[in-house]
Amino acid sequence: MISVEEAKNSILNTTQNFGVEEIPFIKSVGRILKEDIVADRDFPPFNRVSMDGIAIDFNAFKNGQRAFKIEGIQPAGSKQITLQNSENCIEVMTGAVLPKNANSVIRYEDVEIENGIANIQIDKVNDFQNIHTKGKDRKQGDVLIHKNKLISAAEIGVLATVGKSIVKVAKQPKVMIISTGDELVGVDETPLEYQIRRSNVFTLVSLLERLNIPSETAHITDDKPVLKQKIAAYLQEYDVLLFSGAVSKGKFDFLPEVFEELQVQKLFHKITQRPGKPFFYGKTDTSNVFGFPGNPISTFVNCLVYFYSWYYKSVGLKVEEETAILTEDVAFKPNLTYFLQVKLSDKFGHLLASPIKGNGSGDLASLVNADAFIQLPKGETEFKKGENFPVIRYS
Amino acid sequence: MISVEEAKNSILNTTQNFGVEEIPFIKSVGRILKEDIVADRDFPPFNRVSMDGIAIDFNAFKNGQRAFKIEGIQPAGSKQITLQNSENCIEVMTGAVLPKNANSVIRYEDVEIENGIANIQIDKVNDFQNIHTKGKDRKQGDVLIHKNKLISAAEIGVLATVGKSIVKVAKQPKVMIISTGDELVGVDETPLEYQIRRSNVFTLVSLLERLNIPSETAHITDDKPVLKQKIAAYLQEYDVLLFSGAVSKGKFDFLPEVFEELQVQKLFHKITQRPGKPFFYGKTDTSNVFGFPGNPISTFVNCLVYFYSWYYKSVGLKVEEETAILTEDVAFKPNLTYFLQVKLSDKFGHLLASPIKGNGSGDLASLVNADAFIQLPKGETEFKKGENFPVIRYS
User: Fold this and answer.
1) Recorded E.C. number(s) (chains A, B) (predicted)?
2) Is the interface score ipTM higher than 0.90?
3) Least CB-CB distance to B251: which of A91, A207, A209?
């Protein structure tokens, strides 16, 4: 038995590199960027009008002129025109290029226009006001998004702006999720009295979907030769195998033996934690094997704590640790790290964690009433209201 | 001009009901549940063995017996067998039905087995230990998930368990996202000096994807008859139209006029906020029209603040407000609600918001360096380090 920290280290020392692929930028939300995104030109790319109004030569205003004959119009998306006479003005639209020889924009709200003459109604005007000058935000060649960033809506806008219609992202692992256990029947079936429906594989599919990882699922009966043959094939084909069940001490818990016979290198089996103690982790040269215990909450918490961490490091994503504050005293006697189900809430910028009572690792429905786990360290038995602990969110 | 609060009220008073649809449960992550999910039987559905080991009649142990002949084996997924002789035992596996006449399970760790006899190595045994009794977690008919819950991985597990292979969820709105502005070219094109690439529509597509709303996009040139004809058709076909640009005072900002001519009821136009002031909102009998200002940050923040709120209420989802604590003093003079870009971080369970300097509403790239906005109220000009404000996360 090893500690949670040792288990995490072991897992983080055996990450994989799935490589890089190029995909359409609009499909890249939730993926990890694998190239620096550089400004293809200055932003803004020209002296950009930022208010609808008139553009003038500021010197004319400074010299006391207040009435400007409208010489022309500069819409957004049109070639730059020139203010021919410095005592005239040009009507300009937000997003337009500032006309040549103009250097100040006065918004329509501060102007009265009559008979083709714009009369300025304010006394204070600055040069280059309401002009977003070329290159003010970013210079051509500046890195706008650094490699290894998780792509969200903000990044999509930048990718579009610089013309990155195809973008390099981390390839996702190829994952097979396998349930075992002869007591399991399909979701569409009506279980006999001693059977239950498969659920952990679907929970795992959904937890991987949160990471934008597509996955496949299979069910194998508790028959050792069948298990061995199928798993041998999966180890060849997939980067990751996630199992739920058959890793404990039962007579039909064949997985540890099968893994050994298939030369899966065992990194550890069993962690001093609750729930999720009999977790098996191993690897081959090409595949990583996560053998989660079959209880629903055990599978759930181990996927979040171990598979998620392994995946983040594999694709190069740094994730900040978050903590939450206990709202009541909690006692936990066993010398184990305790992953406690909590409901999170906000109070004046403090993240509060209220314990949710469940009936142990089999009580899947209790997960629905919570939205996170907090990690209470091994070696202590009393956890006080007001103390803060690492939090693992899941909804 | 109306306040942010008035604008929000107006929007929340004009939500739509898109109806309900039935979809496969495994596709329902991120959707809003529209039925109560009820336990189809007790959970566990039988007295369930929760440790691998042997099952005995507790009375025999109480009477001093320590050696039990193994009479049979009860695997998970097999019909319940009967302990024929109360001085014998049955080997039982986690997940199995407790054999008839047995009422205590002793785990393998506490037993030595030799020649078909299990010798108990511990002195303390309780009746019903290591047995998860029928109905302990939930009773048949209990509501496991209430209507209007956002479905995540935990709910998927419960849906599978109760056999809900098809589930009722809120239908998503049919959304069209429209850009206008003759300065815009496609992402794949190389813009001329006075042009820029379309980006806001893609940002909006991604922001809607976060809500699992598929959307379509279109671009219309700044030509009033064309705008009118196309928008008339979209108003018929879509529940929601999202526009970016052409709602301000420019000579080619035709949208407000077009909306009026198409009998879109204007709820408001312009909010006392920065960025995102010239936001137009209106409706017809069948469609809601969000006219976001064309600056990237204006479109972004208005989608998060207004469209998101409108959508959540439309589908019946309650979202808790969250707040964060300013890490430095901020001064903001205009009498406007200020949506300040911030980077969030955690310190001992406190959510800290550090302001990110951008160059105003056109500086899309600055969104990448932040991950949220905080909402600083109108009417104040000094916001102090340590004060907390509502936060709107986006990544």
Assistant:
1) 2.10.1.1
2) yes
3) A91
